[in-house]
């Protein structure tokens, strides 16, 4: 072009790619993690057509978090529940929330307390703050790994009887329970063969739990051969699991199972199986049910 100055370079500024995350956590501490990973480089970034955004990973789902105190009060050993990434948010500071359930047998967060946290993602960092729980405010600073399936961070508490508590936290996301799990019971005089068809809800119920739909097929017991899941009492939070099935037994018997799920959600470790009424009422040992 006429008049152009020789040697002029046209530099393209790098494109910043942000990953957002939103969380619903419910139980005092730490839950708030979820975030997006973002990076900025001095080298030219990939070309992104105007009006489009690169795909963002998401940390939405069911999380299990462990807290390790380094000073002050011991809050609770684990926190679990629903983290949500609001995909309507946009960079640079998407709003995130978390709702989780904390398990504490004593101290300042006794019982299963649901807690709401909120924050804004900044690159790979997600600072979050809770609403008041018995006058206590939880602050966390968490970071997700590249897969958005694990997190590390720190926490502290201001106010209330746990004022000054601080420590570290780690967590992992539990995959969605979905499919047919089969196996046989052990440890009881009557052995049952179980086949559970389960579908975990995509969204938490507001208290850090996920409900289910599904059914059960049972052989080895005379009172019933199948069951239909009872959503309100069939829940998973973190790795903790409870499943309740209504049956065709005239007594109104229910089949109740409690246990855990692994991170990949391909194995249900059932630590307790009970039939609640009728001539078949009783306990039926344990089971490992696999996809």
Write the layout of secondary structure elements.
Elements: E1 61-71, E2 78-84, E3 95-104, E4 111-120, E5 125-130, E6 137-144, E7 150-158, E8 166-174, E9 178-186, E10 193-200, E11 210-219, E12 226-229, E13 235-237, E14 240-247, E15 254-261, E16 267-275, E17 282-283, E18 286-290
Offer a quick outline of the entry.
With 291 residues, the protein is mainly β. The chain folds into two domains: 10-174, Lipocalin; 178-290.
Number of DSSP helical runs: 0
| H/E topology pattern | EEEEEEEEEEEEEEEEEE
CATH superfamily of the largest domain: Quinohemoprotein amine dehydrogenase alpha subunit, domain 2
> How many strand segments?
18
**Rg (C-alpha, Å):** 24 Å
Distance between the termini: 67 Å
The global form is elongated
* Number of structurally distinct domains: 2
Binned, the helix content reads under 10%
At the third CATH level, what is the topology name of the largest domain? Lipocalin
- The helix-and-strand class reads mainly beta
Low-pLDDT stretches: 1-56
For the record, the CATH architecture of the largest domain stands as Beta Barrel
Please describe the biggest sheet, giving its number of strands, its sense, and whether it closes into a barrel.
10 strands, antiparallel
Tell me, what is the CATH class of the largest domain? Mainly Beta
Instruction: Look at the structure and give the mean pLDDT.
Output: 79
Strand content: over 45%
């Amino acid at each position: 072009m006429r008049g152009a100055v020789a040697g002029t370079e046209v530099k393209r500024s790098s494109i910043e790619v942000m990953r957002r995350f939103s969380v619903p956590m419910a139980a005092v501490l730490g839950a708030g993690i979820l975030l997006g990973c973002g990076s900025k480089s001095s080298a030219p970034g990939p070309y992104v057509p105007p009006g489009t955004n690169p795909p963002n990973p998401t940390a939405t789902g069911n999380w299990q978090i462990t807290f390790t105190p380094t000073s002050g009060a011991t809050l609770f050993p684990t926190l679990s529940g629903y983290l949500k990434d609001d995909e309507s948010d946009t960079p640079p500071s998407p709003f995130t929330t978390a709702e989780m359930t904390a398990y504490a047998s004593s101290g300042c967060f006794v019982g299963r307390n649901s807690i709401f946290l909120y924050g804004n993602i900044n690159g790979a960092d997600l600072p979050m703050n809770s609403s008041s729980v018995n006058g206590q405010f939880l602050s966390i600073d968490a970071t997700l790994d590249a897969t958005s399936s694990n997190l590390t961070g720190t926490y502290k508490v201001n106010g209330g009887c746990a004022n000054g508590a601080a420590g570290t936290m780690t967590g992992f996301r539990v995959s969605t329970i979905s499919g047919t799990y089969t196996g046989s019971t052990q440890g009881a005089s009557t052995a049952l063969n179980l086949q559970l068809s389960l579908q975990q809800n995509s969204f938490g119920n507001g208290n850090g739990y996920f409900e289910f739909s599904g059914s059960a097929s049972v052989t080895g017991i005379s009172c019933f051969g199948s069951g239909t899941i009872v959503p309100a009492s069939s829940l998973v939070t973190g790795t903790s699991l409870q499943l309740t099935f209504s049956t065709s037994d005239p007594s109104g018997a229910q089949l109740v199972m409690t246990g855990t799920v692994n991170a990949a959600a391909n194995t249900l470790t059932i630590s307790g199986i009970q039939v609640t009424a009728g001539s078949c009422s009783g306990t039926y040992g344990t089971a490992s049910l696999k996809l």
